[in-house]
Amino acid sequence: MEWSRSTSTCITAAVLLLLPRLCSPAGDKLTRGESLLPGETIVSNGGAFVLGFFAPSDAAPGRQYLGIWYNNITVTASTVVWVANRDAPVIIGEGSGGNSSAAPSLALANDTSSLVLADASGRVVWTANITAAMSSGSATGSTAAVLQNDGNLVILSPNAAKPLWQSFDHPTDTFIPGMKVGLRRRTRDDGVDGWRIVSWKGPGDPSPGSFSYGMDPNTSLQLLLWNGTRIYWRGTPWTGYPTVSRYHPATGTVIYVAVVDGEEEIYTTFSVNEGAPPTRYVVTGAGKFQLLSWNRNASAWTTLESLPGRGCSPYGSCGAYGYCHHTQTAATCRCLDGFEPASRAEWSRGVFSRGCRRSQALAPCGGGGEGDAFLAMPSMKVPDKFVLLGNMTSGDECAAACRRDCACEAYAYASLRSSSAKGDIARCLVWTGELVDTQMIGAFWGVTAETLNLRVPAGFTGKKRGTKTLKILLPVLASVLIVTCSVLVWFCKCRSKGKRRSSESEKKLVPGSVRASSELGEGNPSEDLEFPSIQFSDIVAATDNFSRECMIGRGGFGKVYKGTFLGGRVVAVKRLSKDSEQGIEEFKNEAILISKLQHRNLVRLLGCCTEGAERLLIYEYLANKGLDAILFDSERKSLLDWPTRFGIIKGVARGLLYLHQDSRLTVIHRDLKASNVLLDAEMRPKIADFGMAKIFGENQQKANTKRVVGTFGYIAPEYQTEGVFSVKSDVYSFGILVLEIVSGVRISSTDDIMGSPGLVAYAWKLWKEGNASDLVDASIVESCALDELLLCIHVGLLCVQDDPNGRPLMSSVVSILENGSVSLPAPDQPAYFAERNSKLQGKGGDVETSKNSMTMTVLQGR
Ligand SMILES: *[C@@H]1O[C@H](CO)[C@@H](O)[C@H](O)[C@H]1NC(C)=O
Ligand SMILES: *[C@@H]1O[C@H](CO)[C@@H](O)[C@H](O)[C@H]1NC(C)=O
Ligand SMILES: *[C@@H]1O[C@H](CO)[C@@H](O)[C@H](O)[C@H]1NC(C)=O
Ligand SMILES: *[C@@H]1O[C@H](CO)[C@@H](O)[C@H](O)[C@H]1NC(C)=O
Ligand SMILES: *[C@@H]1O[C@H](CO)[C@@H](O)[C@H](O)[C@H]1NC(C)=O
Ligand SMILES: *[C@@H]1O[C@H](CO)[C@@H](O)[C@H](O)[C@H]1NC(C)=O
Ligand SMILES: *[C@@H]1O[C@H](CO)[C@@H](O)[C@H](O)[C@H]1NC(C)=O
Ligand SMILES: *[C@@H]1O[C@H](CO)[C@@H](O)[C@H](O)[C@H]1NC(C)=O
């Protein structure tokens, strides 16, 4: 760590505070009696951020601002994340260098502990106001302003539990990890009632511009970008998810966005994966809300997201009852189902402001509106100007409430079971006015999209068939999408230690020598970590030149071999397909990240190798290989008695919990399935291929359909997209796995199971009839403990519920499995079952096609 200046300089100053001598600050803090002058800085303990005076590159000469910027990111100018005196620059006069008595300065006020910025003449231009309530009794000699390493400037007093003031409560145009955007439900004694990001006027002028980003004060359920007082762009209304994550391959950054809905405040905040480059959201002077990440390779900021996008994404672009149809390449206006353009002529000219009107009038209202029906439009950003109805417990109730109100045009329902602090278990939105600013966003925002249920006349036929086909196709489309994003493109440019002698690299893997894990420091992630690299020639020797005999598995990513090194150490070697195109930097990050995840229920990565086009990963070898090889083998499945199976279920749950929560990162597996659960000699489970989410680059994948489609049955229903994943999609896969382990039946089994169209439907049917214990694999009936069995089936069914919010978190699952549970909610009927069932009774043709295509893809997978 370097201090920006010497600690002993004291200078005479006659500023506002009338102290005889003020000293310069040292390190990361400014204490009472010290003052910060232009040219001096405070550096956070950790070196990430700097506080000091700066002049924006385009600013009028002599104008300076007090701000915080990244310590060592210099593009053309420093990247400023916070400005104190946004609209009141201090002017640096001629003699400012030598005449220190005439310089502006920042100091802590004697009496109130407020931070005070005074200009050269001693006039106060800015203060960090500390309210009387906060400062009473806490202003003492040891009060200090500290710049924390997350970029937050805080005023701390030893007498106060909380900071007296913090810059994170007074954001400017930048939103960095740890900050909040949202609202206080009531103002606290610090006088802060919420957090809003406000743009600069322009590149040279930090004073507040016209664009701002914050939470909608009317509903607290959505985030808005304003141009002045007008809404310019609107985010998707919150559906109750606690977190979502997105992976950006361009800089190898994973963004975790959380919504915190508490008693006192509701806000959104975000974090990034460990080792990720500096990442920030900014509202620009031109009205864009952008996510930027530092590209270390290019020494430049990379724009990862920029909103509003092109075309019709600004607020209300498509008029009333229109919606913006968003695809990867273009965005254009369409009318909601059951509506047509108000003026076809204008519409065809690309003028959408008049929107759409009903193509078929609703029946006259009265008698409770039984005459009308609802038409579902999935994957929508639902319209603005909704009314939130409380006290709802189900989608049916929400629909009934809308039906009762003659003016109600639509409703949308989301379950809040896993997220709400206030006891509401459902979120029911209804619309009684025009439907504005609707968007179809299926391809990108995953769990944040929802189904809009539109009121239509009872006999409405319009596009109904179309949507029905869509519904049937969705599972198929989903699997295709997953395919495109799921080929493992590892490659390992592990510091090519070409000169290292083979005996040396071997030593790392022979028993008793230093293990890979202990070489990977837990400390500073940016440290250049020693990651074991193994010579290709040694691997050739260990696997008998990748002989057929040594091959123990294959998948879309390549083949897996058993290898034995000279010292006798047995490993599994994954030889990756040669056409991967992932960035070296990204790969390195990911490999280091994965090697840091250590848990007894996760397979350990020991090392890797690159030479020429070869990319190999070395894992610990597990004697019993994949769970699928035993569980679904009629000869061998009895090796897994009930206690063993229960142990496997609990072990997988613990491993998944570690990935989701306990590893400090949120890692979403995305491909949990029986063949990715490996068993050691004692039949203890270890999850393999975790962290693949991090390695996916959405763009550069070359799909190998066979492998990925094989996992079709494990994909959560809301998983229609890539780009957004929640821990709840893993929970879904876990639920499927539990049902498989209990029943010994493959989820991809194509036979009707006892007359039910699939394993989930069968389990649900038995559960509903009170015969859940019949699900158990016939080969283990004897060893079976009925209470454990029923508990597992119950948990499995809760995990495969259609609504991600209804699924438990892995922390609950582990606790339920470990301790049992007296009261679990009853599971909802799984969607796949309901859907297929209705199709079976409906149009025969559709059923055949969709069922056949699913079946085929599944068969290819094996
Ligand atoms: C910033 O500083 C860290 C540690 O001092 C260093 O590893 C990193 O390369 C620096 N980044 C830039 C952009 O200079
Ligand atoms: C510079 O300092 C001298 C005393 O050292 C003082 O008389 C003078 O007023 C100062 N200049 C300004 C511009 O304040
Ligand atoms: C500031 O504190 C000093 C002693 O620490 C005291 O002499 C002085 O009067 C105080 N000034 C004000 C304005 O409170
Ligand atoms: C601090 O409080 C004073 C007086 O209440 C007010 O004039 C000033 O604008 C406030 N400063 C800030 C930065 O809010
Ligand atoms: C909040 O509601 C009022 C009254 O309906 C409306 O005028 C205002 O524009 C709304 N504000 C936002 C941010 O939607
Ligand atoms: C923002 O609003 C102003 C004034 O209403 C308008 O002139 C400007 O074009 C708007 N900017 C954008 C990007 O819409
Ligand atoms: C990083 O830089 C190297 C060359 O300096 C280039 O080959 C590589 O593609 C870059 N990676 C990324 C992710 O930009
Ligand atoms: C919710 O329901 C309870 C009892 O069912 C009732 O007492 C309460 O008033 C309801 N609240 C609202 C906001 O409708």
From TrEMBL:
User: Which region is the signal sequence?
Assistant: 1-25
Q: Which SMART domains match?
A: B_lectin (SM00108), S_TKc (SM00220)
List, for all copies, the residue spans of the domain called Apple: 365-454
Residues of the Bulb-type lectin domain: 27-168
| Short name of one Pfam family | S_locus_glycop
Q: Where does ATP bind?
A: 574
* Transmembrane intervals: 472-492
**In Gene Ontology terms, what is a biological process of this protein?**
recognition of pollen
Q: What class of enzyme is it?
A: transferase
* Topological relation to the membrane, as annotated: Single-pass type I membrane protein
GO molecular function terms listed in the Swiss-Prot or TrEMBL record:
ATP binding; protein serine kinase activity; protein serine/threonine kinase activity
Could you tell me where this protein is found in the cell?
Answer: Cell membrane
Q: Which domain of life is it from?
A: Eukaryota
- Residue ranges with Polar residues bias: 850-862
Outline the segment boundaries, as ranges, of region: Disordered: 505-529, 841-862
Q: What is its EC number?
A: 2.7.11.1
Name the chain's protein.
Receptor-like serine/threonine-protein kinase
Q: Which organism is it from?
A: Setaria viridis (Green bristlegrass)
Upper taxonomic lineage = Eukaryota, Viridiplantae, Streptophyta, Embryophyta, Tracheophyta
